[in-house]
């Protein structure tokens, strides 16, 4: 197993160079295989979405990319086109804000830990809180916010820290459809501005097609790559209008057909289910 952080990604070619490369990455938990020989290239500035049935290793893959876990076998190459920047930031499914900090202090936390200048913190944090519609709530605490508002702050904090790679683990799964749609729109607007490399985990095919440039469908465990689908829908995207286009509906149908096979396979292995 090896993880390398290289500096050979050319800043002038952000859309063609691989930001993340995995070669035969395998992860075992004892005798159980969570990920099986994942080989994958993710170009810089790509919004890469991963879907798959429960237990297929999606979150395990994200944790490995975040450096929170190590593969049992294989190699990961992560290119860094901007030396000195934070390598990655992660937005979790659950509430990850510090409850004793205000909205402003939560969003500024990463920059403060990197000893950024106060003027830089003011400019950057103000920018992203404004982008996420949370600047007016800067002095509130997490317990005073709704779930959607807390996720807005988490997104602002992640982008404010200016990571090379943004890792998102089902960040909107607990939200109602209205809040989810609003956050999709806000995330897409910020991503269009920054063009960060994003790896986004979701169970929702609709969400995957709405956000992604490429969608990887994983098999039922052990997790392998079943297929990678290029989305090809034009950007920038209006979330509501996009979902009324024939191309969107066709993509959702095709990806769900691929995913349905794996969901059925996973269910057939559950206790009480016929193999």
Helical content band: 25-40%
Give Rg in angstroms.
Answer: 19 Å
Count structural domains.
2
Determine the mean pLDDT. Answer: 88
Sheet with most strands: 6 strands, mixed
- What is the strand arrangement across the widest sheet? 6-7-8-4-9-10
Q: What structural class do helix, strand and pairing data support?
A: alpha/beta
Corresponding CATH architecture of the largest domain? 3-Layer(aba) Sandwich
**How would the global form be characterised?**
globular
- Give the DSSP E fraction (strand runs of 2 or more residues): 15-25%
What name is given to the CATH topology of the largest domain? Rossmann fold
Q: Work out the helix count.
A: 8
Distance between the termini: 34 Å
E-strand count: 10
Low-pLDDT segments: 1-16
The CATH C-level class name of the largest domain: Alpha Beta
The ordered string of helix (H) and strand (E) elements is EEEEHEEHHHEHEHEEHH
CATH superfamily of the largest domain: P-loop containing nucleotide triphosphate hydrolases
Describe the structure.
The chain has helices at residues 58-66, 103-113, 118-131, 147-160, 177-194, 205-211, 239-242, 246-268; strands spanning 2-6, 18-29, 32-43, 47-51, 73-79, 88-91, 165-169, 197-201, 214-218, 225-230. 36% of the residues lie in helices and 24% in strands. The strands form two sheets. It has a six-stranded mixed sheet with strand order 6-7-8-4-9-10, sandwiched between helices. Strands 1-5-2-3 form a four-stranded mixed sheet, covered by helices on one side. The chain has two domains: 2-87 and 163-268, Rossmann fold (3-Layer(aba) Sandwich); 95-162, no CATH class. It is of the alpha/beta class. α5 links the parallel β7 (165-169) and β8 (197-201). It is built from eight helices and ten strands. α2 (103-113) crosses α3 (118-131), α3 packs across α4 (147-160) and α4 (147-160) packs parallel to α5 (177-194).
């Amino acid at each position: 197993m090896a993880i390398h952080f290289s500096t050979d990604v050319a800043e002038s070619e952000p859309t063609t160079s691989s930001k993340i490369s995995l070669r035969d990455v395998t992860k075992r938990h004892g005798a159980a295989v969570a990920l099986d020989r994942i080989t994958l290239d993710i170009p810089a500035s790509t919004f890469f979405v991963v879907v798959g049935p429960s237990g297929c290793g999606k979150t395990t893959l994200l944790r490995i990319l975040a450096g929170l876990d190590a593969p049992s076998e294989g190699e990961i190459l992560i290119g860094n086109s901007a030396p000195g920047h934070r390598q990655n930031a992660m937005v979790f499914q659950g509430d990850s804000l510090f409850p004793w900090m205000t909205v402003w202090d939560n969003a500024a936390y990463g920059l403060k830990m990197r000893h950024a200048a106060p003027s830089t913190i003011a400019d950057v944090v103000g920018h992203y809180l404004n982008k996420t519609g949370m600047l007016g709530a800067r002095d509130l605490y997490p317990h005073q916010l709704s779930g959607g508002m807390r996720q807005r702050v988490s997104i602002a904090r992640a982008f404010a820290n200016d990571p090379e790679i943004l890792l998102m683990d089902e960040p909107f799964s607990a939200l109602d459809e209205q809040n989810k749609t609003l956050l999709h729109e806000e995330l897409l607007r910020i991503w269009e501005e920054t063009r960060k490399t994003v790896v986004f985990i979701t169970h929702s095919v609709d969400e995957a097609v709405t956000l992604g440039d490429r969608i990887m469908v994983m098999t039922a465990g052990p997790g392998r790559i079943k297929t990678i689908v290029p989305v090809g829908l034009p950007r920038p995207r209006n979330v509501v209008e996009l979902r009324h286009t024939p191309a969107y509906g066709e993509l959702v149908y095709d990806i769900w057909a691929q995913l349905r096979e794996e969901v059925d396979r996973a269910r057939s292995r559950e206790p009480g289910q016929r193999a």
